[in-house]
Structure of MFS transporter:
Amino acid sequence: MSQPTRLTGAQETSLAIAAAVVTANAYYIHPIIAEVADYFGVSHSRIGLVPALNQIALAVGIFLLLPLGDRISNRRLTITFAAGQTASIALMAIAQGFTLFVIGSTMLGFFTIAPYLLPAYASKRVAPERLGQVTAKLAAGVILGILVARVGAGVVAEHFGWRMIYWIAAALMLAVTLALPRLMEGGERSARDRQSYLNLLVSVFPLIGRHREILFSGAIQALNFGQFIAVWLGLALYLTSPEMGYGTDTVGYLAGLAAISIFSTPRLGRWADEVGARKARAIFAFCQLAGILLLWPLGGSLWPLIIPLMITNFVGPGVDVTGRMTFLALDPGVRTRLTTVYVVMMFIGGGIGSYAGTAVYDAFGWAGTCGLLALCSLALASLATAARRFGR
């Protein structure tokens, strides 16, 4: 059988943009979480259920649906799940009650599989020596989606109300769903494993036994992603509180600091190709710990906060890219299922971080949030160091 066609630069960029749009949906809530809570008349602790259930549903959806990528065309699955996202975010746009809004957000999480199918799809269509670079390019697309979502949501909500954000998001998702059949070429080679769906799910566990390092990578990214969610939800509540007195647009503008990651992440990926994924990840983890520890002493006013946020936005995505590199270079027939383990653990961490970030802020304020983040980052750096020794 002939080898699959390599992706062109234009195709890589198009897939990165698609990844941006499908990823953005989960992050519109970040700068506007206080405004949405006020609209529905719920507490800061209860509003944390919106991002928390979204992340947990995403983990469940990934476990149940992503392994199909080793059996069914990644292209077909990506298009199908993008359509599910479109319907879910439209439900959030029309929801008049908190319960329906939570249901729409939870459904959205369940169908948000496309960003995690795209790296597996691309890994089958790029030269091995470019795997880190292309993985980082798709990760940069994800970062762009997060950036645009958080900056745009803050600004749009300030001038047009929070509901307009979800109407815009639904329109963008519809456009991407219609464009994906052209952006992704057909004919990719799928594994010829015709085992039953249940056996396909169960087959994930023996893979963990054969590739135990995936547990290290998944746990590290769970902490990395959980603290990312917690810092931005806590920050949104802190900055819009009477103590600080800023609007949602300020939170959005501050989120624009993530723009540094769009340019730095591909370079970090190339550097990780040279020095090794595990060594690079440990270095990124300790740099991130330094940034997290600065949040409390510099958190008394807006401008000093830029310093730790710049540090964490610079190196945080590098932790994810290097974690993926530890298993995306393995047998193509198992990459999607290993990605399943990694991303399920990541979003369990995100779900815990979502609720913990709002609940801890509700109980202990910004100081409590900073303490929680410091503990998470210290655990992350310790695991990254241990994983480096494990991988030798």
